[in-house]
């Protein structure tokens, strides 16, 4: 069946590769924070155990090991403790088994068992508990990601569409339009997001007092589907959006202009002009063929958008994922770091997979390769 359906074969092949890449990403995401030797139980105890009795500290240590899925559990779900020798290692009996001791140290699962448990939790959508905030990481992600998506997605998509349209028009029209657009695009891409954002805050928020300088919404509103909150969030959205979209559009315009100039020199465009084909149809041909590399760039931007607005979020105190990840890094909250990194990896894989399929549909060279293969 696959031999006679190259498109289906191509899609299945892509799916298998991306599933494999996903598991590699999960594996790296699990082991990377543990390379540094940071221990969530120790970090939490150092923060909370001041003034506690030894018995209370020991009980908290057991509770934390269970909460973070690090401890071996008995049949009743309690952490197993074992006797510790003078050398700091667990004492074993003649048969090699650990010697139980209620006042001993909590016995942890092996790293491999922790990894298998982490895989199972991830498949269930359980990203663990935040060390600092003492609540599920998935809950933090659910609160942060919508803000980042609401900021990044329109900025990237609108900037991509506008930039590509301007780029192909500049290449085709040339003249004064190109002479104005090209330097303006170069200028916009040379300005970092954070510099542009600070300029916007200074001019439009501080000097002219037209827009709020920070926050995702006014303090008197509670997030929800009500008109007051939506209007406030939209009002606070304008400056962060304007700090990203023009820069995105400028970069896309430069790339599209270069690709379109190349397409204008190809034989099929020259032949189309000699046939008297209408201008708008020629521009359509140029746009379709020149946008293939731009699609790959769009995939990268969409895949990174959940973690790519860090600087913008910091400048405007926007409550997105970038801000949550920065707080987690500063507080050594590596369950939140793991969860955020995994979300970014998932978005990146989904975006690249989507563009792989789209390129397979739009690019005749890929179609021909599938048929020949």
From TrEMBL:
Domain ABC transmembrane type-1: 145-359
Subcellular location: Cell membrane
Stored SUPFAM superfamilies: MetI-like
Gene Ontology process terms (BP): transmembrane transport
Claim: Transmembrane helix is one of the keywords in the record: yes
Keywords for the protein's UniProt record, in alphabetical order: Cell membrane, Membrane, Transmembrane, Transmembrane helix, Transport
Transmembrane segment boundaries: 12-32, 151-172, 184-205, 225-249, 295-316, 336-362
Gene Ontology CC: one annotated term: plasma membrane
CDD domains reported for this sequence: TM_PBP2
PANTHER family from the UniProt entry: DIPEPTIDE TRANSPORT SYSTEM PERMEASE PROTEIN DPPB-RELATED
Family the entry assigns: Belongs to the binding-protein-dependent transport system permease family.
UniProt name for this protein: ABC-type dipeptide/oligopeptide/nickel transport system, permease component
Annotated organism of origin: Chitinivibrio alkaliphilus ACht1
Source taxonomy: Bacteria, Pseudomonadati, Fibrobacterota, Chitinivibrionia, Chitinivibrionales
